[in-house]
Amino acid sequence: NDPEGNDRLSDLEHGDAVQAANVSFGRVLALVKPDAGKMILATIALLIAATSGILIPKYGGKIIDIVSGDLDTPQEQNEALNAVNNTILEIFVIVVVGSVCTALRAWLFSSTSERVVARLRKSLFSHLINQEIAFFDVTRTGELLSRLSEDTQIIKNAATASLSEALRNVSTAVIGLFFMFSTSWKLTLLALVVVPVISMAVRKFGSFLRELSHKTQAAAAAAASIVEESFGAIRTVRSFAQEAYEESRYCEKVDVTLNLGLKQAKVVGLFSGGMNAAETLSVIVVVIYGANLTIKGYMTAGALTSFLLYSLTVGYSISGLSSLYTVAMKAAGSSRRVFQLLDRTSTMPKSGDKCPLGDQVGEVELNDVWFAYPSRPSDMVLKGISLKLQPGSKVALVGPSGGGKTTIANLIESYFVLEVRLLLNFLKYKQTSLLLVQISIVSQEPVLFNCSIEENIAYGCDGNISSSEIENAAKMANAHEFVSNFPDKYKTHAGERGIRLSGGQKQRIAIARALLMNPRILLLDEATSALDAESEYLVQDAMDSLMTGRTVLVIAHRLSTFQSADTVAVVSGGQIVESGGHEELLSKNGVCSLVSISK
Ligand code: ADP
Ligand code: MG
């Protein structure tokens, strides 16, 4: 519903674009730094290869001068033949050296580029995964996906392969120009008349492309988001027969990219044609004037031939540069987006900030917390929640759906470091510790990873968990039986997001995971809501043993679950409207009515 939403990350004023590109060029180079030695070697190889390339016309011209000399006597002819043979031998040596250096250059540049992209992807991923949850609420996964895969790929190409091409072209052009000047400065100046015209065209073309690339990438990211969403929710799509709708949504985004691409194609066509005309015309002018000079004896036929070959090589290099300009502009856009993400500071404490276990932990206090989700900042979801969880106590939250119970659990679990404007009164932990590792949540919709059941249960426990421990946890969570019935038992893969398991099975895996993790603070958000009555009865023991000795926040709509709670709080409309002991509330006759609507 926000087609331009992904521009948020890349929304710079056009004027800023060039500046930002310059800044990020330095940063792209910084990525190459660890391979600086190889890059220097590659550059030397490149210079040698370029020189050898431009030397060929010189020797070509030499042969022409030999064969167009006086060759009347057999003696003269023999000498000429020998001279030609020698020249060919020299050319052969130059070609061998040039080829070896070309191979070295290509190999070094490409292997460096592979390392650069790997480095960039790793650091971007590690940066993104440490962002606070609120960031993911407002950023589409598809967008992050395209930053990580496409943009890094574009940067990779620009940072190395295209850089090597550019260096080759520049050095060839410079060396070629030097040879041209030394052959005939008059002809060279004439040939260079077209350069300002070409460079103006290239500049105009470049700024056009930069703008277009910006839009194209945004559209591509939007398309990627739709792919992510529709395949991720394929069952829902299928059951509501919305394939055609999803298709049209995707096609719409692809068409945006297509139209931009078509526009680009048109301009690229015009530009290439214009460049071609300018180049050919300048060559023709040079040939006419050069022929004049040769006829008048100011230069030899061989020198004219060499000159024409030089100018062709130089022209070829310059037009190569102009197409690399396209790549550079694209890469500028990509690196701007990637570096913007890399520059984003997370409000989440780094895992190094985790505090060691203390005696006091396990107490959570919410003190007049006001909260709005970052994606909907004007809509206060919690309006002054004060709640105290004594260590080892059990607090139950009940109340109507949409009242804010899950939000309270989420806040305690992972939102606890927030932008100040969102959280008017900070959550207070007695030890002021942000004990990320201490809190475990079994949520309404448990999420499993696309790995084995075994790994899913052991998720969050670092290190040595034996398979018997995993099995024990599964037994307690009443999951052992159904897992054992799978042909691959605990090695069975759960599928993406646990798609190969039923809702109840997923919840039992999640309970086993929480049991194994042994957290100090446990958040149960309708943890058994997807279980049928019998399974729920069976896991009740597991739930009870899971809850003993911990600080528990349990969200439930079944009477049995919160009967044992020390405190029951009724959450409605983002506020705690009633709270007290279970009996106390029952006698007021408040809870029962609320419990029935909380389903
Ligand atoms: P409960 O668990 O009591 O049913 P929730 O805490 O899930 O209620 O939701 C409370 C309110 O917060 C609802 O109005 C819901 O629309 C809103 N809400 C929940 N999650 C988000 C989110 N990620 N972004 C924006 N609003 C949300
Ligand atoms: Mg909920």
Automatic annotation (TrEMBL):
Where does it mainly reside?
Answer: membrane
* Biased composition annotated in UniProt, kind: Basic and acidic residues: 1-11
Q: Per UniProt, what is the membrane topology? A: Multi-pass membrane protein
Q: Which residues form a coiled coil?
A: none
Where do transmembrane segments lie in this chain? 39-56, 88-108, 173-202, 267-291, 303-327
Compartment list: Vacuole membrane
> Which GO terms of the molecular function aspect are on file?
ABC-type oligopeptide transporter activity; ATP binding; ATP hydrolysis activity
Start and end residues of each ABC transmembrane type-1 domain: 40-330
Q: Which Pfam families match?
A: ABC_membrane, ABC_tran
Q: Which Gene3D superfamilies match?
A: ABC transporter type 1, transmembrane domain (1.20.1560.10), P-loop containing nucleotide triphosphate hydrolases (3.40.50.300)
Would you tell me the protein name for this molecule?
ABC transporter B family member 25
Query: Which organism is this protein's natural source?
Result: Linum trigynum
